[in-house]
Amino acid sequence: MRTQVCIIGGGPSGLLLSQLLHRAGIDTVVLERQSRDYVLSRIRAGVLEWGTVELLREAGVGARMDREGFVHTGTYLAARNRGFRIDFNELTGKKVMVYGQTEVTRDLYDARAAAEGTVIHGAEGVALHGLDTSSPYVTFTKDGTEHRIDCDFVAGCDGFHGPSRKAIPASVLREYERVYPFGWLGVLSETPPVSHELIYANHERGFALCSMRNANLSRYYVQCPLTDKVESWTDANFWDELKRRIPEEAAATLVTGPSIEKSIAPLRSFVAEPMRWGRLFLVGDAAHIVPPTGAKGLNLAASDVYYLYHGLVQNYQGDNEGIETYSQKALARVWKSERFSWSLTTMMHRFPDQSEFEQRMQEAELDYHESSEAAKKVLAENYVGLPY
Ligand code: RFL
Ligand code: PHB
């Protein structure tokens, strides 16, 4: 088999890249290890920056998002039982869209299927070859048969654990990492959201977040020790813990119900450099991970796709500047989002070994955000998404 761009990974980055390239007349094959249902069962991000919204529209997959998504013009930060609002629209003239990653991915799968794009599920043993030559190829096994795809370029959209990043020689690759000493326990429930905007709460018992997917689907999180087992958290324990950590006014009106999904995610900051090696380009979680505080993971994947898509289109028109500068442009934005996610995580969570000094620093930072327009503006500018 031959294609122009072989895309490894059928998560949001791989599918979005494939869809955009298709619309520009560039042929792709997407190789995904899991089934479509499995990919769609992963409950992940919930907030889209406006740049992501516009890119999805450009890819021709914005219709349902525009109908069913919720535009948010602000968010609440809460501490010591009171909350204050960050008004994105007033501070930056921008807003965000609440529309889940599951729905984005579903829309992309539908669009690829409608265009008869090739997405191969159940691809096992994917391996990358000849990346530093002008004729790279990818091999894999499907239903016991070996396949080979020859291509011009390989896009590694295969998440943190995929084979693409590992195909870059250790002598070239640099990795930067911070692992946080806690996780997020997340619950999805068919209940109306407690607030019409998100609430990020700093509490002495640990961080909590109130988010949503739609008018009758809520997503809540509480910070928990990494040693906790999800099976040991009953729904009742979860709701009790959430109520303790959010402002009383919100706790009093919180509607609880059975969880339809419950999971613990570890928190990590990670960047791999460079994001290009020969004819391989790393995209999204394959190259970087952010802690979920600030909702940057999916949005960074989208900005990588934006740079690579434009670079590849230009390249097929005879100008290779875009692919030559891909790594540099993507990383400049990645590091700024890493900084924001790390600083919001640090400001909002309880660290196990937090000293009284660090405790006071955190309180002062929250107070500063409450009282200073300038501080609010910095947070808002980062939250709605820095320009591409
Ligand atoms: P994905 O979504 O991980 O997709 C990668 C795809 O590659 C496939 N794959 C392979 N395919 C073929 N061969 C192999 N050997 C393969 N190995 C892997 C995988 O099956 C998968 O389908 O990466 P992508 O596309 O870069 O998208 C990135 C986003 O998914 C990610 O940044 C966010 O979801 C991060 N994230 C969150 N971000 C937020 O903004 N808000 C959140 O609340 C939020 N929650 C989360 C998250 C990530 C999590 N992970 C990675 C464990 C919660 C979790 C649990
Ligand atoms: C979510 O809705 O899952 C969500 C929202 C905002 C975040 C993280 C997760 O910062």
Please report the number of helical segments: 13
- Please mark out the parts with pLDDT under 50 across 5 or more consecutive residues, or reply none: none
Shape: globular
Total beta strands: 20
Bound molecules: 8-demethyl-8-dimethylamino-flavin-adenine-dinucleotide, P-hydroxybenzoic acid
Q: If you average the pLDDT, what whole number results? A: 97
Radius of gyration: 21 Å
Outline of this structure?
With 388 residues, this protein is of the alpha+beta class. The chain has helices at 12-23, 36-40, 50-58, 63-68, 88-92, 101-114, 235-245, 248-253, 297-316, 321-324, 326-348, 356-371, 373-384, and strands at 5-8, 28-32, 47-48, 70-72, 74-79, 82-87, 96-98, 118-121, 124-129, 137-142, 145-150, 153-156, 174-189, 199-202, 208-214, 217-224, 259-273, 276-277, 280-282, 288-289.
Topology (elements, then pairings):
Blueprint: E1 5-8, H1 12-23, E2 28-32, H2 36-40, E3 47-48, H3 50-58, H4 63-68, E4 70-72, E5 74-79, E6 82-87, H5 88-92, E7 96-98, H6 101-114, E8 118-121, E9 124-129, E10 137-142, E11 145-150, E12 153-156, E13 174-189, E14 199-202, E15 208-214, E16 217-224, H7 235-245, H8 248-253, E17 259-273, E18 276-277, E19 280-282, E20 288-289, H9 297-316, H10 321-324, H11 326-348, H12 356-371, H13 373-384
Parallel strand pairs: 1-2, 1-12, 2-8, 5-14, 12-19
Antiparallel strand pairs: 3-7, 4-7, 5-6, 9-10, 10-11, 13-16, 13-17, 14-15, 15-16, 17-20, 18-19
The structure holds 8-demethyl-8-dimethylamino-flavin-adenine-dinucleotide (RFL) and P-hydroxybenzoic acid.
